[in-house]
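Problem: given the chain below (434 residues), write out its structure.
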Amino acid sequence: MNRALLTLCGLLLAVAATQPATAGETVSVGLTTQGAGSNDIPIALPLPKGDGSGADEYYATLKRDLEISGYFKIIDPKAYVEPASAGIHLGEFDFASWRTPGAAALAKTSLGASGEGLRAEVWVYDVAGGTKLGAKAFSGPKTAGRTLAHRTADAIISLVTGNRSFFDTRVAFVANGSGNKEVYVMDVDGGGKRQITKNKSINLAPRWNHSGTALCFTSYFNGNPDLYVADLLKSAIRRVSARTGINTGCSWSPSGESIALTLSPGSDSDIFTIDPLAGTQIARLTSSPGIDVSPSWSPDGSKLAFVSERGGGAQIYVMNADGSNVHRVSFQGAQNTSPSWSPKGDKIAFVGRDGGFDVFTVNLDGSGMTRVTQGAGDNEDPSWSPDGDYLVFSSTRTGSAHIWLSSADGRHQVQLSQGAGGYTNPHWSNHLSW
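Solution.
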């Protein structure tokens, strides 16, 4: 595990983005979209030009990224009529060849060896307008094909839609493929899976810190549900809370100066904050009768959402960061759990039981409840993308549990995790620089 993480950090830090020398034209976005999940921009994505170095992996990763984003309808390559001799730069091909199959956008790429590494270029065009939207180039070591593809997808989405993508993020989760519940991280497309814990125990609910350099999680490694922190840059795992009873449901404050979690010093569970380094208690935030669990920070760190049974069944509540001004935000159903506060600050995603378990979102005043999933197995543990436009969650709709992505309105849903099932407890990182 340690060697793999150190290699990952070095690889990603080595990947650099540059502008091609000939990419000096003004960007003019001429395409519109109805947003994430609309799949409404017909885009042509021909195979990359170049010497073939890593082209298959690069192209497959890039294509899947664009499909996952939910912005595009990728035109079947069988409909392409452009001659193989055409280039990728403006003036080296005819836009009419791409109007024939109905492309609104065109992304032309190249990939090849560059010294001891790889170099990728992407040139993005508005086909109807016959103009270039922009171009970028990326370089990295020979093993960086997937990373270069993610960077290319990010450039295409940014140039066509004006929005930043999420392919520089990762998802932490729990999987039981080894026979034990271990913590892993993966790229958002489901590839690049890396195992974080190997303690052959039960490990649960990993949560990223804001910088994406650490994960907190609960483990039964020493018999009790204790809280641990995995430092991903130092490849070190340490126990930070081993209090009697449960030490679960961790959530990093945006500043990184505290972790909110659930402890059970008495007969009930309550929300506390602790120092993430020393593990010392900072404050006790709840003390009402009934359980209080699953804290989730607001993006500005001023408030926390949590689950409480103080009013009867499990419902979603919000309080100030010091535990004051508690108010309820979920009012439908008798079992609402797993709150996750949107990075936009305006909504909370949660899980509600309606026969099975489904993902919902609600405004902070309890209005505007939206059902994200319905009639497709049990759907649990929602977590927002950094831009607040998407959610990941665990779903049993295919039989065993897998990680799925959905646009926030539920209209675009795609399975991320691959292979045998047993994927649960997903949590989406912020944008990463390592």
